[in-house]
Amino acid sequence: MAKLKLTKNEQKKQKDSLKMFQRYLPTLMLKKQQLQAEIRGVEIRVKELREQKARVDESFKKWIAVFGEKGVFTPDVLRLKKLITREGNIAGVPIPVFEGAEFEAAQYDLLKKPLWLDLAAEYMEKAMLIDLEAHCLEEQQRRLQKELRTTSQRVNLFEKIKIPEAKANIKKIAVYLGDQQTAAVVRGKISKRGMERVS
Prior knowledge:
α1 packs antiparallel against α2 (116-198). This protein has a single domain, classed as Helix Hairpins, CATH 1.10.287.3240. Strands 1-2 form a two-stranded antiparallel ribbon. It is α+β, with helices and mostly antiparallel strands. It has helices at residues 8-67, 116-198; strands at 78-90, 93-105. The protein contains 2 helices and 2 strands; from the N terminus they run αββα. The protein is rod-shaped and about 130 Å long.
């Protein structure tokens, strides 16, 4: 930390800094609260998606045995063609917002493939959509938590260090300047008495 100058200019500078810290602190605290609320909302939505995925998986279990049929349900039956997201913004933090996804189903001969293949592909699409949305929400949560850490550090810096430091510096300068003024008055009186004695 730089050595504190005990001058009126430094006192003004410290007062201006204090005003700035006190003006920005409520905004930072509000941003911190907004981020915490958004993170809680995202956590709730992720939990809902996980429960929904568990229900889809449970209903999907009936089909697991038939997936084992050799060469029937292969990875190319359904593939992700395009993930659709847009850029959102929460409290100044850019986040990905899930809008959906486009899938491409493989072309296959309906006479040669079993009837359940279309239904299995439909279940697979539901499960993949849930996973993609959950992944997008987890990325939102990661970005929001990173910004929350930074904002919390700034709030703590202002609250616990900068504001008390500025107040202490202002007080220290005021005491010093008051002492200097008193000393100047005393010196003036001593000089005046000395002049009176001489004359």
